[in-house]
Each structure stands twice: as C-alpha cells, then as structure tokens.
Design goal:
8 helices; mainly alpha; globular
C-alpha cells in the first residue's frame, strides 16, 4: 500500500482528504491522546498524594489556569447537551496547561520523577505539533518522530510509577 501523502500537496480529491485524516488519526492523534491522558493521571496521582487530598486542584494549580478552566466549564454548563471532557477539572486542561501544572509543582514530582525538568521540556516540545494535529493539519516526519519519542517515554514513566508504590488514580 503506498504511503499517504498530505492532500494539500496534490491535486484536490476528497478521497485524499479522507486518507490524510485516517493516516493522521491512526498514526499520531491516538498517541497525543494517550500522552495527555497519562500526564493527567500522573499529575492527579502525585498531587493527590503530595497534598494528601483529592482536592489538590485549588492548592496546586495557578489561579490564572483555574480561571481559564472555570471559563471552559461554564461554556460546557451553558450548553449541557454537549459531552463534558470529564469529571475532574484536569480534563478541561490542555497540554500547555498540564505542562505548567507539572512545572509549577516540580518539587512535588521530583521524588518520583527525578528528571521532571526533562519531562516538562519534552511536553513543551510537542505543544506546537499537538496544536497542528488538533487543528487537523499534517505534521512533518520530525514532529511525528518527536511525538513517538514522548509517547514511548511517557509509557515507560507510567510503568515505573506503577511499580513504585504510587497509588495510580484516575481523575
């Protein structure tokens, strides 16, 4: 089967748009989904343990981010027929906000993730490619590779944390 090419570089054909979308969804999007959700679980698990409370959000998240999340929640509340992102406020946070939450609490993550600064750097490196995919556009091979690397690192980190004795909590 020939490699799928970015439909924007060829004569227009609606089937090429479909093929591009299927390729992007099947090779990149699902990894970004996994990365963001595993970061949510890691942050929630560690911050719940460190703050000794499932209500860590009000103490562990900057007020500016909390206000942005409150605005998103209000938008969903005003249109209750739409699906909500999740039960916990962290599901309303996007990758840049998740990265800031981890970075601003890095001292709490460091005992379990000694290279937390490296993780924050890696998450920041995929912020722009994540936005490109989120807006349904094509990535370069280098950006795809970058996402693949972060995906592998996040999976390995989650495996280590699972074996560390940390109680893994789904928010």
């Amino acid at each position: 089967m020939p490699a799928v090419k970015d439909f924007r570089t060829l004569a227009f054909d609606v089937a090429r748009v479909d093929d591009s979308g299927k390729d992007l969804g099947g090779t990149v999007y699902w990894r970004l989904y996994a990365i963001e959700n595993v970061v949510r679980v890691i942050a929630h698990s560690i911050l719940t343990a460190e703050f000794a409370s499932a209500a860590w959000w009000s103490r562990g998240v900057d007020g500016k981010i909390r206000r942005r999340i409150d605005d998103r929640k209000a938008d969903h509340t005003s249109q209750p027929w739409h699906t909500k992102p999740g039960r916990h406020d962290i599901y309303y946070a996007q990758l840049p906000e998740l990265t800031k939450i981890v970075a601003s609490n890095s001292n709490l993550f460091r005992p379990l993730i000694p290279k937390i600064d490296e993780l924050v750097k890696r998450l920041e490196e995929i912020r722009l490619p994540r936005n490109v995919v989120g807006h349904m556009n094509w990535l370069s091979a280098k950006d795809r590779q970058r996402i693949d690397v972060v995906y592998s690192e996040i999976q390995a980190l989650m495996n280590r944390l699972s074996r560390s004795g940390l109680t893994i909590l789904i928010p």
